[in-house]
Amino acid sequence: MASCDVCGARRRAGKNVSHSNRHTNRWFLPNIQRATLMHKGKMQRLHVCTRCLRTAQNKRMTVSS
């Protein structure tokens, strides 16, 4: 399973809860995308979650898909 190279986000365990309140196990997966970012002074293709992509765009970092 891929994780975010910036923040380290991985899958998390949780529950689906039905209307009758039955609980079943499930995974919450981060939205991982491949993006080219400036990392350690050079452009690199990284696995990045969309939350980090939004943060990078707000900080005016170089981002290309």
Keyword list:
mainly beta, 14% helix, 65 residues, Ribosomal Protein L24e, Chain: T, 1 helix
Please explain how this structure is put together.
- The chain is mostly beta strands and 65 residues long.
- Helix content is 14%, strand content 46%.
- It has one helix at 50-58; strands at residues 12-17, 23-28, 32-39, 42-49, 63-64.
- The protein has a three-stranded antiparallel β-sheet. A two-stranded antiparallel ribbon has the order 1-2.
- Strand 1 and strand 2 form a beta hairpin.
- It is elongated, with a radius of gyration of 16 Å.
- The model has no long low-confidence stretch (mean pLDDT 88).
Structural class: mainly beta
CATH topology: Ribosomal Protein L24e, Chain: T
The domain count comes to 1
Radius of gyration: 16 Å
The biggest beta sheet reads: 3 strands, antiparallel
Number of strands: 5
Poorly predicted runs: none
| Strand residue percentage | over 45%
The span between the termini is: 21 Å
Short description:
The chain has one helix spanning 50-58; strands at 12-17, 23-28, 32-39, 42-49, 63-64. It is mainly beta and 65 residues long. The protein has one domain (12-64): Ribosomal Protein L24e, Chain: T.
